[in-house]
Amino acid sequence: MTELPTQREIDAAIARLSALPGGFHPHRDYGPYRSSVLRHPEQALAVVRDPEAVELSGPVFGVTDVTALDSDLTRGGPGEPQGQRITVTGVVTDRSGKPVRGQLVEVWQANAAGRYAHQVDQHPAPLDPYFTGFGRCLTDDDGRYAFTTIRPGAYPWRNHDNAWRPAHIHFSLFGTAFTQRMVTQMYFPGDPLFPYDPILQAVTDQSARERLVATYDHDLSVPEWSLGYRWDIVLDGPSATLFEDEDL
Amino acid sequence: MDLPPTPAQTIGPFFGYALPFTRGAEIVSRDAEGAITVHGRVLDGADQPIPDALVEIWQTDAEGARSTAVGTIRRDPVTDAVLGRDGTAFTGFARIPTDADGHWAVHTVPPGPHHPGATPYLAVAVFARGLLHHLYTRIYLPEHSSLLSADPALAALSDRLSTLVATRETDRRYRFDIRLQGPGETVFFEFR
Ligand SMILES: [Fe+3]
């Protein structure tokens, strides 16, 4: 077995890189997340400013692509999954604040014990036959999505010695354009693992990092049933909504 | 109003039971008339295959139209099983996880020009464990490549332009490798 870096070494690297200029997104080249080292481009991205680019439109999803049960990750079996039942909801907008309507939102996550329903996940924590671990829904006319799930557990990984991912839910989102495509992770407020996690810390601007953290919202909690979290999502990238409207 | 965007994060290693869907690689049925296959590997900076990448394709139809059809991941309302595309609507979208050898393949039709005189292409988004923010590239077919150097946005790429052109293997099969880093690194785009 190869020797893993220590948490102390990773912490030092995170501290050193925290001086990098911020920005809205994580740095693709972020050494403390070791898998990024060989998986980021070294050439500058080529800038495209073409109002007719194919990427300014994107795939469309609709009622045939989802069913009503898909947004409830706790309905996968004949019983209730282990863990704290939660609801997660928010609105998806573009950067001008315009809601993204009728688009596909997909989520996946570990169970309450921190184990994914994926055969590659070797974390020796129990699987939960009553928890599917993935869901999908369409945003409504206000751009709102909502999921019922359980609060995921933190889980270990082999980035470095004693590495633990803070609890998170993976999100995949579509805007009105392929340029607005987004895959990200939602975190839970106040998680003590934040400072140790190179994937979250790869976003070196603190206010940008905070945009990845949901808010506990007592008004969203349902008596005798579930705790509520709110997480609004703003998609980056241009679109050609006007151009598309002319096309229709 | 210009809201700050939500940051991207890596897709991680465990998307495989959540995102891929039945016939996700078939924008058209693989035995449809005029179907082509575009395939290749996703490679890292050490020239090693990436087995946990996800490749997404968005393209025009053969006439150059951008689809607004739904039903790419059509589901059965009773059982919730994935039915997949109904085989009639062209939705223009594919999602393909790489296999253990970093290989992916899409079955589709050659895209048409999205406006008169445009050079057609397949738009590509690449996600992977280790990739903190996804990347965009384009696949141009070799029969259209003579037009590319005339495109002012692409001319500046000079010798790297060839990384965006698929290689014809047979009449209906093209090869396109995606190199995230190193010699022959694929050109990736940023849209403004
Ligand atoms: Fe995860």
UniProtKB/TrEMBL annotation, chain A:
Q: What UniProt keywords apply to this chain's record, in alphabetical order?
A: Dioxygenase, Oxidoreductase
- Molecular function GO terms recorded: ferric iron binding; protocatechuate 3,4-dioxygenase activity
Q: What range does the record give for the signal peptide? A: none
Query: Which GO BP annotation is one of this protein's?
Result: 3,4-dihydroxybenzoate catabolic process
Which PROSITE patterns has this protein been placed in?
INTRADIOL_DIOXYGENAS
InterPro entries from the xrefs?
Answer: Intradiol_dOase_C, Intradiol_dOase_core, Intradiol_RC_Dioxygenase, PCDO_beta_N, Protocat_dOase_b
The lineage's top-level taxon is Bacteria
Q: Which Pfam families match?
A: Dioxygenase_C (PF00775), PCDO_beta_N (PF12391)
Q: Where is the Intradiol ring-cleavage dioxygenases domain?
A: 88-116
- Which residues does UniProt call coiled coil? none
Its family remark reads: Belongs to the intradiol ring-cleavage dioxygenase family.
Note the PANTHER family from the entry.
DIOXYGENASE, PUTATIVE (AFU_ORTHOLOGUE AFUA_2G02910)-RELATED, INTRADIOL RING-CLEAVAGE DIOXYGENASES DOMAIN-CONTAINING PROTEIN
Cite the NCBIfam families for this sequence.
protocat_beta
Protein name in the entry: Protocatechuate 3,4-dioxygenase beta subunit
**Organism source for this protein?**
Actinokineospora auranticolor
TrEMBL record, chain B:
Q: Which Gene3D superfamilies match?
A: Aromatic compound dioxygenase
Tell me the InterPro entries matching this sequence: Intradiol_dOase_C (IPR000627), Intradiol_dOase_core (IPR015889), Intradiol_RC_Dioxygenase (IPR050770), Protocat_dOase_a (IPR012786)
Domain Intradiol ring-cleavage dioxygenases residue range list = 34-182
Q: Which domain of life is it from?
A: Bacteria
Does the keyword field hold Chaperone? no
Keywords, in A-Z order:
Dioxygenase, Oxidoreductase
Q: Which is an annotated GO molecular function term of this record?
A: ferric iron binding
What family name appears in the similarity comment? Belongs to the intradiol ring-cleavage dioxygenase family.
What is the recorded name of this protein? Protocatechuate 3,4-dioxygenase alpha subunit
